Amino acid sequence: MSHLIASQKVIQHYLSALLTEDEPLAPQETALAETKKAELNRLLAQATPVAAPVENVVAAPVQTQVVQPVAKATVAPVVTETAVPVAAPVLRERAIPIAERLAVTPPPQLKVEKAYRQGSFQALFFSVAGLRIAVPLTELGGIHELGPINNLPGKADWFKGIMLHRAQKIQLVDTARWVMPEKYTATLATELNYQYVIMLGTSNWGLCCELLIDTINLEPEQIKWREQEGKRPWMAGLIKEQKCVLVDVDELVKLLNQGLDVNA
User: Fold this and answer.
1) What is the pLDDT of residues 4-50, one digit of tens each?
2) Is 250 exposed, middle or buried (0-12, 13-18, 19+ CB in 10 A)?
3) Rounded to an integer, what distance in angstroms lies between the CA atom of residue 261 and that of residue 232?
4) What is the Cα–Cα distance from 72 to 99, expressed in whole angstroms?
5) Of 117, 76, 260, which Cα lies nearest the Cα of 178?
6) Helix (H), strand (E) counts: the chain
7) Which CATH class is domain 116-257?
8) What is the pLDDT of residues 65-90, one digit of tens each?
9) What are the residue boundaries of the structural domains of the chain, listed by start?
10) In the chain, which ranges are continuous DSSP H helix?
11) CA 45, CA 50: separation in Å to the nearest integer?
12) CA within 13 Å, CB half, 212
């Protein structure tokens, strides 16, 4: 035990000497240091035979490392909260007025390209007060001679009345008054000589006309098509050579059902 304590004192003393080795030593201190070094080597050899000699350890330069203080991690204090029950939010639906429930916005209608615009087609030409009008045969519902007319009060000025044809009640249109109301005068009214009824598709609407002209085969390039939406929807286009209107039957029927004339 005393031997171990003596060896520890020698090691501590030697390490202290290393830390101050830059200071010059007196001759007697140098001799003492050499003596202690030899004694330390002897003690180390006795304690651990495989240990390296002190000279080998001393040969390597000793690097002094500055140990940085380790910052203490800040630990957030643990706060114990009492769980407070939170009531779930009450969702209340807005009362929808009946008017809003009934007002259903219809989906936008896509414009359907007419089949007769894809190639050649036939059209019936007729005249009213000197004005030529054409209807595609594919949208022509038939042709009837004008018969007795039953007038109905409270209708638009251009509504001529009801004509019975077999089991069908045909709603007659005073075509001249509907197409050119600004030129319709009392004189023109007395000069008109309606003889035929041009049926519009599968509807009950019929255009009164004075003269059936002819059925002509047309090519799409012979027509200046109406391209602007909302402007004169009842016109499919203008036939260049004959200088007359080609009727869009579907759009014309829509206007008639709404009680609108050409100025709508």
Assistant:
1) 444 455 455 544 444 444 444 455 555 655 665 566 556 555 544 44
2) middle
3) 10
4) 70
5) 260
6) 7, 11
7) mainly beta
8) 544 554 454 545 544 445 545 555 55
9) 2-58, 116-257
10) 2-19, 27-47, 54-59, 98-102, 175-179, 186-191, 249-257
11) 8
12) 13
